[in-house]
Amino acid sequence: MLNTQNGNPALIRLIRAEIEKRGPVSFAWFMQQALYHPEHGYYSSGRCAIGRTGDYFTNVSVSSLFGQLLSAQFVEIWERLGKIDNFVIVEQGAHDGQFARDVLECSQKHVPEFFAALRYRIVEPFPILQERQRRTLEPFRDKVEWGDSLQSFVGVHFSNELLDAMPVRLISGGMEKLVDLEGDKFVFIEPQVSQAATACQATEQKGAFNQPALDWVDSVAASLERGYVIAIDYGLLAEEFQAKIQVRAQHRNLDSPFEQIGHADITMHVDWSSIIERAQAKGLRVAGFTDQHHFLTGIVSEPGRGGSPEPPADNCGQPLLADSPKRKRALQTLLHPEMLGRAFQVLALEKNIDPGATRLAGFKFAR
Ligand SMILES: C[S@@+](CC[C@H](N)C(=O)[O-])C[C@H]1O[C@@H](n2cnc3c(N)ncnc32)[C@H](O)[C@@H]1O
Hints:
The chain is of the alpha/beta class. It has a single domain (9-353), classed as Rossmann fold, CATH 3.40.50.12710. 33% of the residues lie in helices and 22% in strands. The protein has twelve helices and 16 strands. The chain has helices at 9-22, 27-36, 59-62, 64-80, 98-110, 112-117, 127-136, 211-223, 272-281, 292-300, 325-335, 337-341; strands at residues 25-26, 87-92, 118-123, 144-147, 153-160, 170-172, 175-182, 185-189, 224-233, 235-236, 245-249, 252-254, 265-268, 270-271, 285-291, 345-351. Helix 4 crosses helix 5 and helix 8 runs parallel beside helix 9 (272-281). The site of S-adenosylmethionine (SAM) has 17 residues, from helix 3.
């Protein structure tokens, strides 16, 4: 009998049949099926669930405070671009649209001039997630548009935990780990790396090669006319980078990506250095890189802009830093170095911005 380990049996059969037919497959192919198989993938099927009743937390699911703080950063970018009236926020990996809603609600209430100038564009390849986003964003249907690929824009591209969800190959020291079958179980094997892998020799020692992330950098660099890219994710710089697969279901870390296939999230630490190198090669400049603790502290320390009001001003109907124990707890979760503050990093890239411009608020405490 097939060992399904509580995963999606149809998906497991399909992966198994492929390995039986063409031999061991790359981990990137396996991860692509587990997360993005059109019918059965964890994300593409709509099985994915984030938040208290789901499989894991993200910044977005902690509190609407996250979107409110980011909207303050977007307002600063809009001001820097001369308060243009066709400012676009592009989001990729928008899940159920909650972040977009938090940003739009906050801007509408707090910075109407910015809200009036704003278009929100979600790049979402999966119809079932697009459907959820449309429901969440129904009050803003005139503000939001959808597409399945990036188009030219002036403004800011935002993503939270997008890059860590991209399928990676596991290559290290001239070897590529492949996924094979041993009886009814999936296992890793390590044959010599193929000729085709020579393209990724530069990252061979690091253990993981994220081609989709590099392709993403290329397409963001090509579609951004002027503005910023802000990517938030958990990862490491080159000297510290170690490939680490994380598998999460119902708020538990599973031991292996072969458990609960199609029912669990699979992620890989982001290799920030390879993203930065590629971005610079494609004409983007680094506008800042820091951990989430310093990033959000920088935004909070500049009161009066967007989601970061001068106390005791109204912040989207709720006091931001005082009076609400729930929001205090949320801020602590986002900021605290032992919670999400140090686990996540923020990379900002810029294009066609005056090189003499001051640092964005989020990077004023960056080391
Ligand atoms: C870890 S979830 C993060 C969701 C959300 N940003 C949050 O923080 O709660 C990763 C998301 O990225 C999406 N994703 C992965 N590759 C994508 C791509 N090329 N374009 C758009 N979305 C993508 C997945 O479908 C999934 O919804």
